[in-house]
Amino acid sequence: MMIRHHTLAGLPDSRPTLPKARSHISLGQVADEALFTIAENLRRAAFAMIGVAVGVAAILAVAGLTASASAAVLLGFNTDQARRIDVSPSSESAQSTLILTDDQQHSLRNLPGVVAAGTIDQIGAVSISTLPFWIDPDGAQDTTLLGVSSDVVHAAGCELLTGRWLLGADGSHYSEVVLGDGLAELLGVTSAADGRIVYIASDPYAVTGVVHCKYSGINLTDSAMILYLAADGDRGPSAPEHLLISTESAWTNQVRSAVGLLLDPNQTGSVQVSGPPDYAAIREAVAGDINGLYLALGGVALLVATIGIVNTRLMAVIERVPEIGLRRALGATRTAIGVQFLLESAGIGLVGGLIGTAMGLATVVLVSLSQSWPPTIDLRLAGLAPLAGLLLGSIAGAYPAWRASRFEPVAALRAAG
């Protein structure tokens, strides 16, 4: 079809109109060209990749280390300690000991959720040795002698390392004593099976067992414990210094409230009931400290990475003006040029995101192991981290890609020449 044009003089022009050149370059070819360009300029691309990797790694490490530290907090306050309640006279009380009636002790042990309840009374500071003092006056160790009830082994979360717990009068010639594992180590007592005798203030005692106790309110590790019997021969003293209660995990708060009302019904403030710490507050404090540090580092790293990608891509556009002009002259459209540069930036971001993901996961694992934390990683976040790098690269490369697509073929070739 012939379309006539009119010249400025009004005369007809019978020259045919040429069809507009169309690009036959497919998206796959553009992607291949983008990958080839990244490989050819790997050194320059590496700087932008490292920036993205550091930012992604820092952000990923925030979640991982926060979760790991929170898990460590929960492990540090183990389930035994989380279920333990300590009752003692308050600082405002005129009494230095608790006054427990038989009815109160019976009601206490029958409260729903109570696993065990035991009493501890500090008898006093004593000297203990494995030989009589007149034989080895310099071999004595200073310790605290505690009078305990039979249920303390369960209420205080004590683990028998050797021997057995106190049974009271069993026909033995000697009174019985159980040693904390720290004191037993100082005395060189490694087993209670051979009828080991120790001397407490010159009186002989048979060591029936060595225990490791998780209760931290009183130093049981370095103490010697004897059975402190009350009139009924089983319940311990009626005026102990400490009352320990072990509960089922779901009942700790309810038992804590009930014990306060049971032992101090008039709310005079004479009894202090101490329960487990507020784990949620501790976790939030730990998480806040870690989040503040790593989010700041991650944000700065991502900002630097974004600026780095923009700068490197703008420099690439300027250096590749001849290439852009030639490709446009050969039929490449503005869209093809822009997509190629955008894919190059997105590829840099994706590779940086993959590297950052590996760095972040390695950081979580190594730091957690060095701190004896259980490594805790959100696999969903780890899967999204490379995509975050891809998105960052795409956003940072949008403007340079637009600049590259605006070059006209003639102007680009003239600038190159």
Describe the structure.
There is one protein chain. This protein has helices at residues 27-40, 42-76, 79-82, 102-109, 152-155, 181-187, 252-263, 279-319, 321-329, 334-370, 379-405, 409-416, and strands at residues 5-6, 12-13, 84-89, 114-129, 141-148, 158-163, 175-180, 197-200, 203-213, 223-227, 242-247, 271-274. The chain has 417 residues and is of the alpha+beta class. The chain folds into 2 domains: 25-75 and 281-416, no CATH class; 80-276, no CATH class. The protein is elongated and about 110 Å long. The two termini are 38 Å apart. Residues 1-11, 15-23 and 230-236 have low confidence and may be disordered.
Report mean pLDDT, rounded to a whole number: 77
Distance between the termini: 38 Å
Shape: elongated
- Please trace the helix and strand order, writing H or E for each element: EEHHHEHEEHEEHEEEEHEHHHHH
The total count of strands amounts to 12
Number of domains: 2
Biggest sheet features: 6 strands, mixed, barrel
Helix count, DSSP H or I runs of 4 or more residues: 12
Low-confidence stretches: 1-11, 15-23, 230-236
Class inferred from helices and paired strands: alpha+beta
Strand % is 15-25%
Order of strands in the sheet with most strands: 4-5-10-7-9-8
